[in-house]
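User: My collaborator sent over this chain with a note saying "see what the structure looks like." That's all I know about it. Can you take a look?
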Amino acid sequence: MSLCQLSCIGSYQVSSNEQATEVDNLFVQSLAKGLKVLEAFSSLQDSISLTELVAATGMTKSGVQRLTHTLEQTGYIRKDALSKRYSLTPRVLELGYFFLRTNPLVAKVTPTLVAARERLGLAMHVSVLEDDDLLYLFRLPSRELKVVEMLPGRRTSAFSTSSGRVLLSAYPDDKVRDILKRKPVPAMTPQTVTDPDELMALVAECRSQGYSISQDQLITGQIGVAGPIFNAARKMVAAVNIVARTSDWPLARVEAELLPQLLALVQELSTY
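Assistant: Without extra context I'll predict from the sequence alone. Here is the result:
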C-alpha cells in the first residue's frame, strides 16, 4: 500500500486544508502540505520532477523545495543526482505495514479468504470507500499470480467494480448522484458503464439484491462478484469480491457456482 493512499484512510481531505485551519487551531498546515507532496506520487510514473510536483500540489516552487528536502532528509523520498527527479523510498512501505498489521478487519478476513482462494484458485479482494473512491485494502492473487492483483492500496472509481457498487449501495440515492456529478466515471474498457442513470440503476439493483456482479468494466475479459461485510452494529464496513476470467467463468456459471460461495463468505465475515 502506498503512503499516499494510506494517508487518506480515515483522515482529512487535503482540498479542505484552508477551511480546516479556520476552525481547528490544532491543524498543522505544514504537515498537511508535506502529505500533499507525498500524495503527488500517486501517478504511474516511477519518478517526478520538481516542476511536476509544483503543478500537482498547487504550491510555490520554494515551498515544494523545502518540503522535498525535508522528506529526503527523513528518508521518505530520494532525489536522483543526474535527472534531479524524485521517487519514493521503500520506507513508505513501513507505514502501510503498520496499518495492515494492526487492522482488525484485515486480521479477521485473512484466514477465511486464504482458504477460499486455495479452494477456488481465484483472486480475492477486500475493499473500502475512501473519499468516495474504491480502495483495495487486502488482496490475494489468483493462482496465475498477476502482479496487479497483489498490490493493496490501489484506488479506482467505485462505480466500475462490483465491490464499489456494493459499498455505494449503503448510501442514499442523492449522495450517490452527487458523487457521480463530482467524479465522472472514466471508460476503462469499451464496455465500461459511464451513463449516470445506468450507474444509479446498477447501484439500486445492488441495494435491492445485496450483491453485485460486474463484467468487463475495468479489464476486458474479467468478471467480479461482490458482497458486503457488516460489523456488529450492522454497518457496512467493507466489501469482498472474487474476480475471475470470463473465458472460464461466464455469467451463468458465476451466478450458479460463485455467487453462493461469495454470499456464504460475507455472511461468515460479517461477525466482524
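A starting point for your reply to your collaborator: The longest helix spans residues 251-269.
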